[in-house]
C-alpha cells in the first residue's frame, strides 16, 4: 500500500466535507448543463447552486466561528482573494458607468457562478481533514470521471447522444442538441454541452486517474485502473484539439515526475495504442493529424484569430479592469478564447490575477513535491500540477467560463491542490484550528 499515512483529526469536532464535495462532483458531472431550476434560468444549474451553498457553508464554518486560532498563510486562497477583489472592482466600475440593460443580468449571473466555483475551492481546501479522506475524494472524482468517459464511448459506438432524451423532475431544460461530428467521426460530449468542454474535463482528469491507478494499491489492480481505462480510450476519439493539447500537456508534466521505468511503460502503452488505432481505424489518425496540419484553413481557428482586432478595441476602452465580467455578450462576438474574454471583461489587472491563481497552485505543488519524501504524495502533487496546467492552458481555446462543468472541475482541482498543501504543511485551518 503506497497511500500516505493519514493524519488524525486534531479535534473531535473536526469538519469533514468530503461527502458534501462528492455530491457536488455528482451534480457537476452527471446532470447535463442544460438542466436548470426553471425560475432561475442560467443561474439555476444544480451544481452552481450547490457551489453557492458550499460558499455559505464554508463561511459558517470558518469565517463565522466564534473562536479563531492563528493559521498560516494559504497561497491558493490568497491568490483567489486577489482575483475576486479584481472582479469586484471591475463589477463596481461597470455598474457605476454606462451599461446596456441586457448586460446587467449576465453580469450578476457571472458573479454568482464565480461565487459558486470559489465556494467549491475554499471548502475543498479547508475542510478535508486528512490524507486518507483526500484520497477518498480523489477516488470518487476518478470514478465519476471514468463513468462520463464510458458514456462518451457509448456515444461513439452507437452514434447517439442519449442524454438528449433525459428528463429530470423539477428541472427545466434549455433547447436540446445533437451529436456533432468532425471528419466523418462522431464527437462525444458525455453530459457536457459541447465536445470541447468534455475534452478539457477529460484532460484534467487524466493525471488524476493515472495517479489513482498507480498508487491506490489498497484496491485491487483491476479496480483501481477501471476509471483510467475509458478516459485513456475516449480522449483520442474526441476529435478535439483542446483535448489532445490538454492531455499532452498533462502527460508531459507527469513524465517529468515519473521514474524512467514508468516512462518506458507508458511509452510502450502509447505506442501499442497508436498501432492499434492505425490498424482498426487509420482514417481516425489521419483526421487527428489534419486537425493540426490544416489548422490554418480551419474556420474555427480563423474565427478565433479574427476576434483579436475586435477584442483589442474593447480592451482599449477599459484596459485595467475591463467592462465587467459577463458583460461581453454573444451579440458582439463569440471570442472562443477565455483569456481574451477576460482581458475584455476584467482587464489586464484581473486577467493577471486569474493567471496568478493557476501559477500559484502549480508552484506550491511543485515545491511540495520537492520537499516531501513519500512517493504517493510526490506523485499526487505532480498530477495536480499537470491537471492545473492542462486546465489553464486549454482556456486559450474556448470561452470556458460559459461552460460550468469545465470551470467547476478546474476550481475543484485547485481546491484539492490547496488541501494537499495544507495537510502536508500541517497548516491548522478550518475547525481543525479552532480550540
Number of E-state strands: 4
Along the chain, the helix and strand elements come as: HEHHHHEEEHHHHHHHHHHH
- What distance separates the N and C termini? 34 Å
Task: Work out the strand percent.
Answer: under 5%
* Number of discrete helical segments: 16
Number of individual domains? 1
Kindly state the mean pLDDT as a whole number?
A: 87
Largest sheet geometry: 2 strands, antiparallel
Instruction: State the low-pLDDT regions, or none.
Output: 6-13, 66-70, 427-435
Task: Write down the overall geometry.
Answer: globular
Strand order of the largest sheet: 1-2
Structural class: mainly alpha
Round the Cα radius of gyration to an integer and report it.
21 Å
Secondary structure: helix percent? 55-70%
Question: Can you characterise this structure?
Answer:
The chain has 435 residues and is mostly helical. The chain contains 16 helices and 4 strands. The protein has one domain. The strands form 2 sheets. Strands 1-2 form a two-stranded antiparallel sheet. The radius of gyration is 21 Å and the shape is globular. It starts with 17 loop residues before the first helix and ends in a 10-residue tail after the last helix.
